[in-house]
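Students often ask why inverse folding is considered easier than folding. One informal answer: many sequences map to the same fold, so there is more than one right answer. In these notes we will look at a single instance of the problem. The structure comes first.
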């Protein structure tokens, strides 16, 4: 037992079987654990998981205790498995590993294919691989259906996905991979944008996109409203579709919800043009 283990009087669990008690200290692992864990298996998620502004699955977290990502909170839970990100709560992760706790660090997915890999990785750790395959199958089905709906009315080929206050999504981003899966051309590729690029609105409008897909956030409502009123944007008359940014923040299965909202918007725009 380490010094810290002696302080808390708790011996880390090193069980090789499917964990009975799982804690998550990262928003993106929260979301996947909420979807993949067996009933009663998940004993704690981060505080962000309870916030509908931050998490697409906050409703699922309602009855699960929250944590702030500190070792003092996690150790007494006696978790068999602790899910963490590779960039957040680094001090806690380092301490837990030093003490011998079973910590699985999950790197953020870069695109849709990477998202499926992460879903399978978390499910394997939880002992629920069949849940991963069912979720991935449903994700693929819903995105394919959204893509067909868009193709039926003509997919935009010079679209741009924009987060007010942050920039445009490149072809190698999670959001860019969603546009590609939907058959929508991403104008960012023409300008060599791979991940994300900040861009003044005046320059943004000069790209002459045929569609703006805007990922909005509740806490950025004022930024989004200012963007919508800007003369450069209003004068361009480029059609815009909004969807909640929370749906694509982690590359979780809520990506399908974003895909359907984008498809709904494109179909509606074509319906308006026909009238």
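Output (designed amino acids):
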């Amino acid at each position: 037992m380490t010094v810290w283990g002696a302080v808390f009087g708790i011996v880390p669990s090193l069980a090789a079987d499917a964990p009975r008690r799982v804690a998550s200290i990262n928003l993106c692992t929260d979301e996947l654990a909420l979807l993949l864990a067996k009933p009663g298996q998940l004993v704690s998620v981060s505080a962000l998981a309870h916030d509908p502004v931050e998490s697409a699955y906050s409703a699922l977290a309602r009855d699960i205790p929250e944590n702030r990502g500190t070792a003092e909170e996690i150790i007494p839970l006696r978790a068999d498995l602790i899910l963490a990100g590779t960039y957040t709560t680094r001090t806690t992760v380092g301490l837990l590993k030093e003490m011998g706790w079973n910590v699985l660090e999950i790197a953020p997915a870069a695109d849709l294919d990477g998202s499926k890999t992460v879903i399978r990785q978390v499910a394997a750790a939880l002992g629920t691989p069949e849940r991963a395959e069912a979720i991935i199958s449903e994700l693929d089905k819903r995105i394919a259906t959204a893509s067909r709906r868009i193709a039926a009315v003509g997919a935009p080929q010079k679209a741009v996905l924009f987060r007010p206050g942050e920039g445009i999504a490149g072809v190698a981003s999670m959001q860019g991979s969603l546009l590609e899966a939907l058959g929508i051309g991403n104008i960012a590729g023409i300008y060599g944008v791979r991940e994300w690029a900040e861009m003044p609105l005046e320059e943004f409008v000069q790209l002459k996109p045929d569609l703006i897909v805007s990922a909005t956030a509740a806490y950025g409502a004022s930024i989004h409203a200012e963007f919508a009123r800007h003369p450069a944007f209003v004068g361009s008359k480029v059609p815009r579709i909004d969807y909640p940014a929370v749906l694509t923040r982690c590359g979780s299965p809520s990506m399908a919800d974003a895909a359907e909202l984008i498809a709904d918007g494109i179909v509606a725009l074509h319906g308006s043009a026909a009238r």
